[in-house]
Amino acid sequence: MSNEDESLLVEDKDHEQIQAEIKHMSFEDLQKLKEKLGSKVYNETIFGRKNKKRTVKTEFKRENKNRPREMSAKKPVSRCNEFTRVKRAMYRDPRFDSLCGTFNETAFKNSYAFVNKLRENDLTTLQKELQETTDPKVMKKIKYLIQRLENQLREEKRRKDKEEKKRQEKQQLLESVKQGEKPVFKKKSEKKVLNLVSQYEELKNTGKLKKHIQRLRKKNKHNDRTKLRVDRTE
């Protein structure tokens, strides 16, 4: 027998003794006793203490550690539930990330110089396919790709020539400074004229000068027409 059960038996015996003594008391004495003890204590003394329900704490166990824990439905749920935060994956763009260093155009071009060789090989392959095919749709598509590759190679060649000219100008300035001469810097207008001359020589050597002049005439004619329309509306 547990200690709690023994204490309950003792309380029951005391209650029986109190009931035996109260039987011989008058109603007036009982009323005075109630006023003296109070209603709550009087009722507990006369009628016995309240029977409190014994709550048995149930322990929820998991059959497997990977299963979720079973919780009592009577226990209120906290408003701030604890949950495991998942780390968000961080993606970095090397073009805009300072951790990847600064962009060096010269180093980039040198690293990807093989792309131009691939373009030249593709251009040779497309030219062969153009000679062999007879389908008009395929021919149109191949011509478009050839024109695109030629423009890319031409632009890359212009960029290299421009860088080479800048390098030569810097070299000439350094040599003039070493010889004790005053360096002479070219104006923008002079550089523009030199670029036009070099472009003219390039078009003349490749046999595309006539086509280029026709394109410029057509462009200027279109601009003149547009300007006349604007003047008339005003």
Q: How would you describe this protein?
A:
This protein is mainly α. 65% of the residues lie in helices and 0% in strands. It has helices at residues 3-22, 27-37, 39-47, 105-111, 114-132, 136-178, 188-206, 209-233. Helix 2 (27-37) crosses helix 3 and helix 5 packs antiparallel against helix 6 (136-178). The radius of gyration is 51 Å and the shape is elongated. Mean pLDDT is 78; it is low at 1-6.
Features:
8 helices; mainly alpha; 234 residues; elongated; single chain
Tally of extended strands? 0
Supply the helix-strand structural class: mainly alpha
Strand content: under 5%
The main sheet comes to: none
Number of helices: 8
How would the global form be characterised?
A: elongated
Q: Whole-number average pLDDT?
A: 78
**Span between N and C termini?**
114 Å
Secondary-structure blueprint of this entry?
Blueprint: H1 3-22, H2 27-37, H3 39-47, H4 105-111, H5 114-132, H6 136-178, H7 188-206, H8 209-233
Helix pairs in contact: 2-3, 5-6
Explain briefly what this protein structure is.
The protein is mostly helical and 234 residues long. Helix content is 65%, strand content 0%. The protein starts with a helix and ends with a helix.
